[in-house]
Amino acid sequence: MTTLSLTDEPRRQPSSSLAMKLKNPALLLLPAVAFLGFIYLLPLIDLIRISISGPSWLTYFQRVFAVPLYWESLVRTMQISVTVAFLCLLFGYPTALLIHRTRGLTRALIATAIVLPYFIAILIRTYAWMVLLGRTGPVNKLLVAIGVLGEPVQLLFHRGTVLLGMTAVLLPLMVLTIYSSVSRLDPGLTRAALASGAGPIAVFWRVLLPLTLPGIGAGFLLVFVAAIGFFITPTLLGGPGDQMFAMHITQQADSVTSEGFLQALGVVLLLITLAVVAIAGRFLGLEFIWGGRKLTESTPASPTHVAANDPARRTIGSSLADTIGWPLLRLLGMLPTGVGTWTVRLMGGVVVAVLILPIIVVMVISFSSASYLTFPPPGFSLRWYEQFFSDTNWMRAFWTSALIAAVSALIAVGLGTSAALGIVRGNIRGKSAIMLLLVSPIIVPPVVLGLSLYSLFLKFDLIGSVFGLAAAHAIGGLPIVVVILAAALQGVDKRLEQAAAVHGASSLTVLRLVTLPAIAPGLAAATFFAFLHSFDELVLTLFLSSAQLKTLPLMLWGDINYRLNPVLAVVSTLEVLLVVGGLFLARPVLATSQKAS
After folding, report:
1. How many whole angstroms separate alpha carbon 586 and alpha carbon 126?
2. What is the pLDDT of residues 408-438, one digit of tens each?
3. pLDDT tens across 511-562, in order?
4. Which of 32, 270, 396, 565 could disulfide-link to 415, CB 3.0 to 4.6 Å?
5. Which of 62, 46, 64, 44 is nearest to 262 (CA)?
6. In this predicted model, which residue has the larger pLDDT, 222 or 336?
7. CB of 377 within 8 A of CB of 369?
8. What secondary structure does DSSP assign to 225-292, as a single string?
9. Residue 158, exposed/middle/buried by CB under 10 A (0-12, 13-18, 19+)?
């Protein structure tokens, strides 16, 4: 997780060349703010307007809560989201500790196993679980082989598989968030506690856990907010009794008589999400959304200083230890010293296996000689790759996705670079509010955003257009670019820009010859991740595409719903290779971000 350290208050130090040359650096923020205002905020406001346009402003909302189908689905969504967040926390915390405690090649391999799935499309990862848990999949075959089952059974389409699939999808988010918190701790704290005679479990309970509570809270809330709007995984892995609230929005979108009520469904989901974020922001600060410290901090505070001077954190830590800590510590203190270490290793190993094995199985199946999904394959062949590359429908969808993603990345990088410069280099007040606006699209459920954009796109005849889809995808790509480039800009020595400005270089010359080359690795990483975000986008495309404009995720979605064959494994394998290549190219900026966090 990238850590940002911006400030709302103007600092009393020489400003950068851009700040000196531009009378008002806030102007750099205007393009991104105007873009989001038109294509993001206005549609959401219009969505709210339509939802209250009935005979009374509560008419459609009363129906949402009066019909048992929707009320029960809303309760079920909350239950599933909380359960998934707890599961991610249970397995994510030991995994973050495992990464932190390992060194060298081992740490690199574990971190790669966590980061790689994070950037693979949710649709691909869900498809991998369908293959893994299918009747002819490896799990069924293993259970039959060891005698647990007499014959293959149906392991899919129930609550357990929904929880498993959603947890596997969101685990990397939890691990990366907690690891960001753990990695900033002063190692001297734990060494001092051990030297004072405290056992490893006491050190964890009295030192490590209280200091990482903000990271735990941030990870839990990010996973919970993401789970609330889940649509793809529950649809593919769940049964009729596992429908989540977002699924009803997509179903109602096909009805021409649901206007008003459909928007009310979306507004209910949006308001719940915003309420959760607002409550979290009250205790954690809204900076948890983009992984930064409070923007009023001009310099990083040491963990020791924070622990000593933050009454809230000290009170929470003491409360945990004093209420249930000491009895629990006495009980756990009876265990051998190595129990904690092996627990971390075991649970971390389970997480790595859960994240990586489904992807490996799908990649192997893509080379299967069988005409159906089975693992292990009876033989190896390139027939499915030949079928994919020779199928005009698949290839057209691939190049359409590539074109849309390229245009979307261009929009996101252009606007995001300008916004990042304005945020980091501009001495303006209210940076927290501006940053919140820039990154807020990542917390809005995609089905709500797609629903709100549909009306706008109808008015401007953008449904099914390449530029329309690219612009819609750029809404989600923009936060990625801003966060990456803001972190990269903070690593650039301002004195280089100042020296160039003092010698008469214009602001554009400084930007072109000094600033952009200095942030080139971050710019390349931001471009790739913005491209990948658009290339993988499915939910917005479901709302805004047309029969004539099919993207690769749409083709994959249609085939997964109606038939499963190894061609889908080919698409998944190519996606994994794309992500691996991109992460390899992005290594410099990822290494820089890790050092800054």
Report:
1. 25
2. 999 999 999 999 988 887 777 778 888 889 9
3. 777 777 888 888 888 999 999 999 999 999 999 998 889 999 999 998 887 7
4. 32
5. 64
6. 222
7. yes
8. HHHHT--HHHHHH--GGG--HHHHHHHHTT-TT-TTHHHHHHHHHHHHHHHHHHHHHHHH-GGGGTT-
9. middle
Give the whole-angstrom CA distance, residue 347 versus residue 352: 9
State residue 392's pLDDT score: 93
Location of structure tokens 């658009």: 534
Hey, which residues does 549 pair with through a beta bridge? 546
How far apart are the C-alpha atoms of 549 and 84, rounded to whole Å?
Answer: 35
Residue given tokens 């971190």 in the structure block: 111
Give the C-alpha separation, 223 to 503, whole Å: 50
The mean of the pLDDT values for the chain is 82
CA distance 7 to 430: 9
Residue 376's SS3 state is coil
As a whole number, mean pLDDT of residues 348-376 equals: 88
Region of residue 338 (left: phi > 0; alpha: psi -120 to 50; beta: else): alpha
Q: What is the pLDDT of residues 558-574, one digit of tens each?
A: 888 777 778 888 988 98
Task: Name 368's bridge partners.
Answer: 380
Token code pair at residue 322 = 């004093």
User: Each residue of 125-159: pLDDT tens digit?
Assistant: 998 898 889 888 889 888 998 888 888 888 889 89
Measure the CA–CA gap between 56 and 92, rounded to whole angstroms. Answer: 46
C-beta of residue 430 within 8 angstroms of C-beta of residue 438: no
Give the helix ranges, DSSP H, for 40-158.
42-51, 59-66, 68-101, 104-118, 122-133, 138-145
Neighbours of 152 (CB within 10 A): 15
Sign of CA dihedral 194, 197, 200, 203: negative
Categorise residue 290: left if φ over 0, alpha if ψ from -120 to 50, beta otherwise. Answer: alpha
Tokens of 327: 């009895």
Q: Tell me the CA distances in angstroms from 267 to 49, 260, 264, 274, 538, one per residue in order.
A: 10, 10, 5, 10, 21
| CA-CA-CA-CA torsion sign (193, 195, 199, 200) | positive
Judge contact between 444 and 479, C-beta under 8 A. no
Q: Which residue has the higher pLDDT, 53 or 20?
A: 53
Residues written for the chain = 597
Measured in Å, how far apart are the chain's first and last C-alpha atoms? 7
Number of other CB atoms surrounding residue 430 within 10 Å: 11
Q: Kindly state the DSSP code that residue 26 receives in the 8-state scheme.
A: G
Q: What is the pTM of this model?
A: 0.84
- Do the Cβ atoms of 87 and 163 come closer than 8 Å? yes
